[in-house]
């Protein structure tokens, strides 16, 4: 437990420093590129691979480097991020069926995951950076929303959980935990709106709707990564974070939530809704 707490504190300190210590984009760019590379490496470990084990590790490193490079290019050529977010959201919509049908249907576990992995990681990385560029506080709001929902689901599910949410994918998750997570997230929304935002009724409805969709997408991201790990026969995506597993284990919820929230904020600006 102590190791887990120390790791969490170090991670939080690094992320907050990159978010708030400077207005220069380079620390955040570096952090996002490194995160993309490690996430890509871990993703490759989870997907179907060649039978030759000797070349799997070099290929995993190569896949991680490729994921980091493509994410960095997407950050540089900002015009393509909308395409990335759209492709990511489409993938997450498909994953709803995959999660619901597992283990009866697992045809999704095929080499196409190599492409999907790059898209999901790059979309999340660019979405996080885009929110930070708009305002570090919007990124902080996304973090609070996702972490609040996750914490609420954990504690409520632990105390009251009886009905399983997706027993074949993640046996420890319950419907009661999901409700607890959503309620916790909605409390965060209310506090943010009352203290920091001055919204009209229509703006409130739009903002609340986007926040709810973001929370449910974070749950989907968690379930999807759990499903891939279960299909691959792997407990943790990696061991780089002592007490926490891998980078993917920490950002699985954000993989889905970040591009959906960022895309929603982008659409709001297009239709003239200024938050």
Q: What does this entry look like structurally?
A:
The chain has one domain. The N and C termini lie far apart (40 Å). The protein has 275 residues and is mostly helical. A hairpin with a 3-residue loop joins strand 1 and strand 2. The protein is built from nine helices and two strands. Strands 1-2 form a two-stranded antiparallel sheet.
Concise account of the structure shown:
The protein is mainly alpha-helical and 275 residues long.
Q: How many DSSP H or I helices?
A: 9
Q: Strand fraction band?
A: under 5%
Ranges with pLDDT <50 over ≥5 residues?
none
Largest sheet: 2 strands, antiparallel
Key structural traits:
globular; mainly alpha; 2 strands; two-stranded antiparallel ribbon; 275 residues
Topology at a glance:
Elements: H1 2-20, H2 26-46, H3 53-76, H4 81-101, H5 113-134, H6 136-160, E1 164-166, E2 170-174, H7 175-196, H8 201-232, H9 247-270
Antiparallel strand pairs: 1-2
């Amino acid at each position: 437990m102590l190791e887990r707490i120390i790791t969490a504190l170090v991670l939080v300190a690094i992320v907050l420093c990159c978010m708030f210590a400077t207005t220069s984009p380079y620390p955040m760019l570096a952090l996002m590129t490194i995160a993309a590379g490690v996430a890509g490496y871990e993703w490759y470990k989870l997907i179907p691979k060649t039978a030759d084990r000797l070349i799997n590790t070099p290929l995993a490193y190569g896949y991680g480097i490729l994921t980091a490079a493509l994410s960095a290019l997407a950050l540089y050529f900002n015009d393509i991020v909308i395409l990335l977010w759209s492709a990511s959201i489409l993938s997450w919509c498909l994953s709803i069926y995959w999660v619901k049908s597992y283990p009866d249907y697992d045809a999704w576990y095929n080499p196409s995951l190599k492409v999907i992995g790059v898209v999901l990681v790059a979309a999340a990385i660019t979405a996080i950076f885009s929110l930070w560029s708009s305002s570090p506080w919007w990124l902080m709001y996304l973090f609070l929303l996702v972490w609040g929902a996750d914490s609420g689901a954990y504690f409520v599910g632990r105390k009251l959980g009886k009905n399983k949410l997706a027993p074949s994918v993640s046996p420890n998750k319950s419907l009661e935990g999901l409700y607890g997570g959503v309620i916790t997230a909605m409390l965060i929304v209310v506090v943010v709106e009352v203290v920091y935002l001055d919204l009209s009724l229509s703006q409130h409805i739009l903002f609340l709707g986007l926040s709810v969709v973001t929370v449910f997408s974070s749950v989907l991201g968690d379930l999807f990564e759990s499903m891939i790990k279960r299909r691959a026969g792997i407990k943790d995506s990696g061991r780089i974070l002592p007490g926490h597993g891998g980078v993917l284990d920490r950002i699985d919820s954000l993989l889905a939530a970040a591009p959906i929230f960022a895309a929603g904020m982008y659409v709001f600006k297009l239709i003239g809704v200024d938050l």
